[in-house]
Amino acid sequence: MENVHLVPEEEEDDLYTGYNDYNPTFDGEDLHNDEGFQQAVRTSHGRRPPMTAKYPGTAIGGRPIGTAYGSRIPVGTAMGRPMTGAVQDGAARPMTAVRAAGYSSSIARGSVFDPLGQAKGPAPPLETRNEDTPEEKIKILEKKVNDLIEESCLAHARGDLQLSLEKAKEAGRKERALVRQREQTGTADHINLDLTYSVLFNLANQYANNDMYTEALNTYQVIVKNKMFSNAGRLKVNMANIYFKQKNYTKAIKFYRMALDQISNAHNAMRIKIMQNIGVVFIHMGQYSDAITSFEYIMSESPNIKTGFNLILCYYAIGDRERMKKAFQKLICVPLGIDDDDKYIPPNDDPHANMVIEAIKNDKLHQMERERCVDMVKGSQYVELANDLEINKAITYLRQRDFKQAVETLKMFEKKDSRVKSAAATNLSFLYFLEKDYDQADRYAELAMSADRYNPAALVNKGNTEFVKEDYEKAAEFYKEALHNDSSCTEALYNLGLTYKRLGRLEEALDCFLKLHAILRNSAQVMYQLANLYEMLEDPHQAIEWLMQLTSVTPTDAQVLAKLGDLYDNEGDKSQAFQYYYESYRYFPSNISVIEWLGAYYIDTQFCEKAIQYFERATLIQPTQVKWQLMVASCYRRSGNYQKALETYKDIHRKFPENVECLRFLVRLCTDMGLKEVQDYATKLKKVEKMKEIREQRVRSGRDSSARGRREGSAGSDSGQSNHGTSAKGERLSVKLKTLPGSNEPYEASTQQEIDASYVDPLGPQMQRPKTAARKRTEEDEFADEELGDDLLPE
Predict the structure, then answer these.
(1) Whether the Cβ atoms of residue 235 and residue 223 lie closer than 8 Å to each other
(2) Which segments in the chain show pLDDT lower than 70?
(3) TPR repeat ranges (predicted)?
(4) For the whole prediction, is pTM greater than 0.70?
(5) The dihedral of CA 525, 530, 533, 534: what is its sign?
(6) How far apart are CA 350 and CA 445, in angstroms?
(7) Which of 303, 475, 609, 735 registers the highest number of CB atoms within 10 A of its CB?
């Protein structure tokens, strides 16, 4: 312990000395009790810069001191510089380099929180376009030039060549004025080169169309020599064409070759056409060897009929028979681009092509081709193919709508073996069924069945003939037998469903169509039949569901949309009903029942002005029906437009002077409006009502005399029949008169029940016709259902 020395306390080195020392200025614990500070806060004295030194340890001269008021009071430096967050010039200086959107931590006095800047008021109005500025004048002039080019092209399309040339010249003058104006305004760098090219190119074309070849060539030279026009070298083809018309063949060849040099190999079709033109020019010059060189190149690269024919002519001109044969072989190998079955079917819109096809359809070459083909097949081991070829020929006649030739071809097989006979008889039955010769259709269906009882198409056709005779039980038996022989026969399954529907066996019909829907998922006819069956089974929700699926397949079918509207209307959902009725009207605005429903809907919802357009359309469709015109007048009257209603009633009275309802409303309106014409209309109304009473009395007397005649059973049956006819007519008239409102009742639209009763099914009111089956080449191949589409309209 003698060697241990203790350090005195005053000499102890404390590492943390000084960290608890602080400037008393920063002591904020007793600020609430500091009277001087509180007084400074409450008065303007606190905003004076204190005469203190800078805070030690900082680079700035001062910083805000927090208070209990939730804001920071800036404390200035000796120089009076405002600190961060202080108010300067009425705006809050941001605390950081990034300011928050729409607000800041301190708000200037008197400012309002306005993040969207709405306090600035509405935006100033757009400046009106000043058309006197040079740039605006240039734009207007450019538009005029474009319009003149378009007018020139349209005039040429109409055949007015002189007018097209005048417009092209005027466009050229306007374009030159446009260039001068740009040079004057110092905007020559912005000259529209595309517009200049269009003007010159159109002008050259119009010169050529008017046989002004010199001017056309000069204009083309202007374009070709201008290096600023890209791909202008192609126009040398047009110049070569002009030289060819002038019979300057040497220059034509020169310019064709110049154009060929400037066209890359990527544009092979253009190069082939130019080569073809070069070959034609050589033919006109008599240089057949050079022409052969061009045509042979084309036939090796891209063979076509015209070039192959020209090549044969060149070989003929030089007397080279062997090369002629080879060229002809190449020519017949050139694809025509159409199917063999369609090459003799004439198009409907080209009379010249129709004449050519009629000429070659049965020429000697075609006859020889057909006879040799069939004879060769008949003499070979594939003799059965000859029969198939003949049946295929009959089918080709059908596609050409030559039913007579098709029938004659098929009748040739009546004495053939059973398989071929059955196929031909099936097709004949189908043809006669289409022509509504049901006796012949039944005869050939029996013949097909006797030749091959397991032919499902023959059984379907036999069932169809029984269906037309309304022997539904027997028809169902044939359809069932066809399904037994071929379970995938969709025609038999569809027709069986129709048959069950006619017999009232709705559940069985539903089962057939559900099976068919599993096979034909997107068949619109099947979906409609399912919807119709569910409606007949009083399940409207399922009917709506199937119709909704149907709209996904045929979204623009107006009748399907109308049917959906009808079902929703029956369910009481007027908004959905209106949506589908309106869509139906949009696709087919001539359906009277849809128009009537929409008009009645707007009347019920008190929008009579909107109902007017629908009843006016109904008036256009049925101008002789007075009720639509009365509804238009009624809508005007309901909407308060009495003057327009009066004019409409007067117009109706001129067209239908004996209409009682029109006269009644004329009397009422003239009375309410205090017009002098009321007496004239009242007199006319009395006369018409008196004539109506006389007519009704005659109807009642005719009915009574008819009934008396039947009771007496007298021999005067002819007279009784005549009275009965009069009575029936009178009944129809009385029913019509009962529908008219009384004199004190307003003319209303048809009730909803009347609208429902007048609904027509989507696919037409025709009788349901069964699907027709037919046969073509073999037992397995049916004459597919291209024959089914037009004849299988559901009821």
Answers:
(1) yes
(2) 1-31, 41, 43-123, 126-132, 337-349, 360-362, 370-371, 373-375, 377-389, 398, 400-401, 403, 412-419, 707-795
(3) 233-266, 272-305, 456-489, 490-523, 524-557, 558-591, 592-625
(4) no
(5) negative
(6) 39
(7) 475
